[in-house]
Amino acid sequence: xxxxxxxxxxxxxxLSGPKADAILARSGGDGKPKRKKKRPAPEAASNGLVxxxxxxxxxNAATTSDGEDEAQVVADSASGSSGFKKVGTASTPTTLTxxxxxxxxxxxxxxxxxxxxxxxxxxxxxxxxxREERRRTAPSPPPAPASVEEGGEEEETVYRDSSxxxxxxxxxxxxxxxxxxxxxxxxxxxxxxxxxxxxQKAAKDxxxxxxxxxxxTVARRVTDAEYNRHFKDQLHADDPALAFLTKKRTQGPAKxxxxxxxxPNRFNIPPGYRWDGVDRSNGFEKxxxxxxxxxxxxxxxxxAWGQSDM
Length: 310
Description:
The protein has helices at residues 4-14, 18-27, 61-66, 121-137, 169-191, 197-214, 225-232, 284-306; strands at 73-76, 95-98, 159-160, 166-167. The protein is mainly alpha-helical.
């Protein structure tokens, strides 16, 4: 359904004739533009406030621009009454006073910091020196706290558990480091459980040797007795004097050992030095070694038989 207001507006602005008259008669308008009623100027209230209509600002724009140099008029609200008044009573006349500009701060000593107009060199120098003196004597503002981006100290994060109690993160880190060190010590100790006395002694000797080498220098000299003794104790198979030279014994007490052949066993353990050469076992070690050698010989023969035609 067409809008009646729109039809009446179109008929009054753009149509003519009986059709336009019928549309205007149906909508109740006569088609003539109505003149806007001029609102009366509101009077000043008893409290000193003046209400000004926004529509009056346009025609008075020229007049306001011409009177910029005039003093501003302000209503004195001290004489007004703050209580309620009956309707129809005469309001108290408002006292108008001219606004006085507050004195501007011209710096220390009442001197004007910037002066307009032409000035001589001496005046400009004196003004510059006065400004520098005021900057030096003026109290400096307190420094603002530096943020994290500017290099300030970051606030410490507070950690809490499920019950809300505060957790000391540094103590927790120290406890975790101690627990980790204890775990590493136990793991290193478990590795030595499967070692015998010989392996432990060899590890201790290697550690002591490394400790002694750590304090030595890289250079070796002729006067190094330990270095010379190490190479003198070495036995070489191609040495022609090895047949008639007595074997050098290790320094210190030596454990006595059996001298002579003994029947082999799976662990290659030699008999005691007091053994008389009589095998008093049940023969299991002998049978085990014979069976092992027989299987090795059979495998070697089978491999040789398979490669004979190549």
